[in-house]
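STRUCTURE:
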């Protein structure tokens, strides 16, 4: 199942995903990386995979092989929100709820 790259992309869905990531649109970058994993390929995917694997080597984590699937997985993984941020937000909400409960107990009717 090979689909053409999105309009305005440089001939590679991986390159388009990288460009979206660099522009700050992580949702679109994740969508494009998952599309590559699902089989959407442009004509310049192997060359883009080699270039992006070299760019992703300096990122923390495992080394990235210069294959299309490996680079797409690495791009998708870079766009996921870390669970630690959600745990921190839940802790803040719990603390605020506790403070409101204390205030209502002390100053409530």
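SEQUENCE:
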């Amino acid at each position: 199942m090979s689909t053409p790259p999105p309009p305005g992309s440089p001939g590679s869905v991986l390159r388009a995903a990288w460009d979206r990531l660099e522009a700050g649109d992580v949702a679109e970058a994740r969508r494009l990386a998952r599309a590559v994993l699902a089989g959407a390929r442009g004509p310049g995917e192997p060359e883009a995979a080699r270039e992006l694997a070299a760019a992703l080597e300096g990122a923390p984590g495992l080394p990235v092989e210069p294959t299309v699937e490996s680079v797409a997985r690495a791009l998708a993984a870079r766009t996921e929100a870390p669970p630690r941020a959600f745990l921190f937000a839940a802790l803040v909400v719990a603390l605020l709820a506790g403070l409101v409960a204390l205030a209502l107990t002390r100053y409530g009717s």
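REMARK: The helical segments are 13-23, 26-38, 45-56, 68-78, 83-107.
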